[in-house]
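Hey, sorry to bother you again with one of my protein questions. There's a protein on my desk that I can't quite get my head around. No rush at all, and the record is pasted right below.
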Amino acid sequence: MTDNDKPIAQLGGLGTGEYFARRTGLPWAMPLALGKDADDLHLSAGLPALQTLLLDLIQRRSCAA
């Protein structure tokens, strides 16, 4: 899970969270709203929204295996 950080030119237009998550080569997910992280998503949209994001990540990971 990564933060949805503001895109910056030095990282090819990606936010720092997404940039470094991609570099790991591992599956990752982030909230859709810019500037938000998992805790923000949980507080604003509730546990079901966070659960959906994580279940989507798990499903993508199992499909890639």
